[in-house]
Every structure is written in structure tokens, then in C-alpha cells.
Amino acid sequence: MRTSIISAAVATALAFAGLGSAANITEWKSRSIYQVMIDRFAQTDGSTDVECEMHLFCGGTWKGLMNNLDYIQDMGFTAVQISPIVKNMEEHTAVGDAYHGYWSVDNYALNDRFGTEKDFKDLVAEMHKRDMLLMVDVVVNNMVQGFDNVVPPKVDYSKFNPFNDKKYFHPYCNVTEWENSTNYQDCWLYPYGVALADLATETKPVVEELGKWIKGLVANYSIDGLRIDAAKHVNDEFLPTFVEASGVFAFGEVLSGMPDDMCRYQTLGLLPGMPNYLEYYTLNEAFNGGSLINVAGMRNSAASSCNDTAALGSFIENHDMPRFANRNDDIGLAKNAMTYILLNDGIPTVYQGQEQHFKGNGTPFNREPIWTSKYDKKAPLYVLTSALNKVRNNAIKLSSEYLSKPSETLWSDVNHLCLKKGPDGSQIVFCVNNKSSKGDSYEVSVGGFQANDKVVEVLGCKVNTADTMGNVTMYMGQGEPKVYVPMDSLKGTGLCTETQQDGPSKNGAGVLGVTGSMLLAAVIGWVVVLA
Ligand SMILES: *[C@@H]1O[C@H](CO)[C@@H](O)[C@H](O)[C@H]1NC(C)=O
Ligand SMILES: *[C@@H]1O[C@H](CO)[C@@H](O)[C@H](O)[C@H]1NC(C)=O
Ligand SMILES: *[C@@H]1O[C@H](CO)[C@@H](O)[C@H](O)[C@H]1NC(C)=O
Ligand SMILES: *[C@@H]1O[C@H](CO)[C@@H](O)[C@H](O)[C@H]1NC(C)=O
Ligand SMILES: *[C@@H]1O[C@H](CO)[C@@H](O)[C@H](O)[C@H]1NC(C)=O
Ligand SMILES: *[C@@H]1O[C@H](CO)[C@@H](O)[C@H](O)[C@H]1NC(C)=O
Ligand SMILES: *[C@@H]1O[C@H](CO)[C@@H](O)[C@H](O)[C@H]1NC(C)=O
């Protein structure tokens, strides 16, 4: 009996592994992604005391990730994006070693710094067993060698596999004109420490070879989706051919804060999705002296310029940019940024360490090893992320309209943005603000529900009732974000199994002339237990 149960489980896992490689855009929209840089995520033996020189290898492996999937899954993520997997150059350079995986030399060999082929296949099988999708970062713009700052770089092309000849590359020139697409697509990027030999992705042999390669990579390792590094730096025509050859969904990196510049990749059918840099920049400003009105404005621009904002990756941190907390480490602001990212239209993408409130500056300081946190599941942003993912996953389960319909702006001003996402009955109504943890206490009335709906604010587990207009009174304080759902929609989720009646916070009580302890007593008296 026992054996037959096990073999049934194995059969199911194998069946899913087969299906896994067919994950399409619809499937990806329902996921939320945790972004891992393998060298910085986990040691094979789970040690948490390994010292890390930020520009060198620090020892993270695929097996380390496999052994720590609980940390990611318990936070509610349903997909993992990992750093590149192919063999990199071993040279030491003025800008460090290839610990990040972006310096490919052999597309047909796995990077043995991160483990064996079996380790990698075991990782993928374990993820699929857990119904998690795998997105792999791939480099198509260039192959890489060390560079001693003598121009033009002396490159030994015979070291590359399969592009072992100069004929597959653009002649050397340095990208200098960031507004001239011929220049930033055909010239070589980053000419210090390493030479990024720029592949001639407009030529037939290169297009065909990369197509064959990606098809094989996806099939051999059951990869469910791709992130295409530096997509803006290859010619437009290359991208759709490559994505089609892969057979899976892809994000292409298009680093631009201008809607027309970025969205054309989607409207022209060059890429299915991109990390949403439009909102990244405006969000960062809104939490650093700017205004949330501008975020509301950018949402509208993105919605009218891009044809599918639900396929954009919603993020506030990645491995290329200084951490959010590097500019301001206020925990209140970080909570609001996290809330927006997870409940926004689009595919939430959280970069490892964001949930631990890491503060690193630009590369390589934004690549802190996560083990220094000892994988703390009690960290405030870890707890918050877990709740938000559960709320989102539940809303998707209750209605597919959650994903297909863009959210509605209920209210925005310089300090607030309130949105409603999902249809009545399973909607999420949330407000983010930029007041910071020093924020004052006040009340706002926000709509999005039906008259007299019983609602729960899921971050504080407070219950309230909508008024006859369907508005809910939100008791704001300490710059906390607010996330409301209909009480009935939480049944069976394990969220807010104990709740209290909402009301002015302890801080606000002073303003109203009621003492904190009196109010607290009143609040505690009202406990509702959900199923
Ligand atoms: C995506 O795949 C699912 C099955 O996994 C299927 O039901 C759906 O129709 C597919 N959608 C598209 C757009 O191909
Ligand atoms: C490449 O261009 C940048 C400016 O865009 C310049 O600072 C750098 O010195 C150039 N490097 C080489 C090797 O030409
Ligand atoms: C754009 O860059 C290319 C390649 O460097 C150069 O040949 C061309 O003259 C540039 N175009 C303009 C308008 O500057
Ligand atoms: C995939 O596996 C086939 C068969 O072993 C092999 O010929 C091919 O090179 C592999 N492709 C990649 C990208 O690893
Ligand atoms: C967006 O535009 C592309 C290219 O025309 C098209 O393939 C895709 O289906 C469109 N997506 C949506 C959601 O309209
Ligand atoms: C929030 O927005 C206001 C109004 O635009 C701005 O004055 C304030 O500096 C912002 N707060 C933070 C922490 O960025
Ligand atoms: C109800 O909420 C909306 C925002 O969703 C707001 O504009 C309106 O003023 C609120 N109504 C009342 C009576 O406060």
C-alpha cells in the first residue's frame, strides 16, 4: 500500500514536470516570484556563518536552494527566478569574479560552481513537486572574457562554446549613445574589468544557434520561464524568435522609465513581459520625497501604453539596483512598498533579502548573502509578505477575474494610493501611504465594498463593517499599509483566525481624548473567530 502511494506521488510529480515546461503566460500571471542569486542564497550544508567578500564567490549552491525551499514557500511564493546556470569564465577581474553567473563562456555546460547536473535536476524536480515554477535568467547579448583596459579588447574567441569565432560577434565599439539604438544594441557594454563580446544577434547563424540552444535548455531541465538579461541591448527582431523557440513565458530586461520606450516591446509583440521599471522609478520617488499621485499617474500611462500590464513584473528591488532601504530604512515605508508590489496588477517579484530589510547599496553591495539573516521567518517583512501572498493566492483561487481585470483606483493624493483589485465578494481593497513609521493617526473613508459588508483588515486582523455607501473607515497610524477583504472570503485560509473590532489606534486615542488603556480594553473585548 505504502509503495503504491509513493509511486502514485512520483507519477504525479513526473507528469507535472512534463507539463511544467509548458507554463504559459496565463499560468505565470497567477504566480508570485522570489528572485534568487544562487551564490548568495544558501550553502549546501546550510551553514549560516560563512563570511562573504561581496565581489567573490561566497559558496551558495543549487542544493542549498533546494534544501531551503520551505523558507520561500512558507512566504507564499509560487515561483522562483534564479541567476544564470551556464558555465562562466574563471578569470579574476578588477570588478571581481563571476559569482553572479552573467559571464557566460560555455552555453552547453552547467556552471559547476553551483553544483552538478544532478543537483540542478533535483532542484527542479523538488520545485515542481511543490507546484512551484522555475524561471531561469539567460544571457544572449554577449559572451565574456577578462579585459585589461587596452582597447580594442584582445578576445580569444576559441574559448567560447558554441560561438568560437570572431564572425559571430559585432566589431568592438563602446556603448556611448544611450538614445541611439544602433549604438546600444551593436556596441559592447561595460568595458571595464570584463569584455562583453557582443553577439551579432541579427545574423542567421547566431539566431539559429541561440534558438536551438534555448529549446534544448528548456527541454533538458524542464524550465518554466525565462528572464532575458539585457533584452534592450539586442536587436528587436531577435527577441520574438528567441521567445518562440523557448516555448515558455519570458520577462525581458528593458531598463527604461519611459512608457513609450518600454511598452513598445509588448505592443509590437517583441516580448510577452518585462520587469516593470516604469513603476519602479516612480514608486521609489514616492517613498523618497516624491508623491503617490505620480504613481497613480504612471499606472495610467503604463496601462495606456503597454497592452498587458498583468504580464509585467512588479518589483521594488532587484540585483542591479541599490536596495529600497539603502535610501531610507524606515520599516513603515518598506511595508508599503512590499504591499504595493504584491497586490499590484502584474506578477509580483521580490528579490531575496527584501523580506529581511537588507540595506545594500549598488552592485555588489545589493547582493548580501541571505544566510546572515539565519533565514529569520519572524522578520516583520517576512511575516508581511507571507500574509500578502496568502491573500493574493486566495483571491486568485476564488476568481480568475482577479488576474484578468486591472485594479481600480479608489482614491489617491500626494500621500496615499488606494486600489480595489478583484470582483465583489473576493476583492482586495488596499491603501499604501508614504507617511513612514513616524506617521500620524487619522481616519480615512475608502470605498470598494457593498453596503454593510463585513470586512477584515488582514495585516492587523481587525474587523469592520462597510457603511451604506460601501465605504470602510480606515484607522491610519504609524504609516502602516491597510489591506481589506470581505470576511467571508477568508474562510479556510488560516489567515486572521482571531480578529478584533477595528477602531482608533492607541496613538489616535490621545487625539480623541480617550485613554489608551480604556480603548484597548474595549477593543480586546470583541473577538471573532473565523473558520
Ligand atoms: C495556458 O495553459 C492552460 C493549461 O495549463 C490552458 O488552460 C490555457 O488555455 C493556456 N492559455 C493560453 C493563453 O495558452
Ligand atoms: C566607454 O564609454 C564610457 C562612457 O560612456 C567611458 O567612460 C569609458 O572610458 C569608455 N571605455 C572604453 C574602454 O572605451
Ligand atoms: C548611432 O550609432 C551608430 C553605431 O555607433 C553610428 O554608426 C550612428 O552614426 C549613430 N547614429 C546617430 C544618429 O548618431
Ligand atoms: C540537451 O540534451 C541533448 C541530449 O542530451 C543535448 O544534445 C543538448 O546539447 C542539450 N542542450 C543543452 C542546452 O544543454
Ligand atoms: C499585446 O500585443 C501583442 C502584439 O500585438 C499580442 O501578441 C498580444 O496578444 C497582446 N496582448 C494583449 C493582452 O492584448
Ligand atoms: C510623501 O509625500 C509627500 C507629498 O508629496 C512628500 O512631501 C513626502 O516627503 C513624502 N514622504 C516620504 C517619506 O517620501
Ligand atoms: C467613500 O470612499 C471614496 C473613495 O473610495 C471617497 O472618495 C468618498 O469620499 C468616501 N465617502 C465618504 C462619505 O467618505
UniProtKB/TrEMBL annotation:
InterPro entries associated with the record: A-amylase-like, A_amylase_C_dom, GH, GH13_cat_dom, Glyco_hydro_b
Active-site residues per Swiss-Prot or TrEMBL entry: 229, 253
Record EC number: 3.2.1.1
SMART domains referenced in this protein's UniProt entry, alphabetically: Aamy (SM00642)
GO function terms (MF aspect): alpha-amylase activity; calcium ion binding
Family: Belongs to the glycosyl hydrolase 13 family.
Protein name in UniProt: alpha-amylase
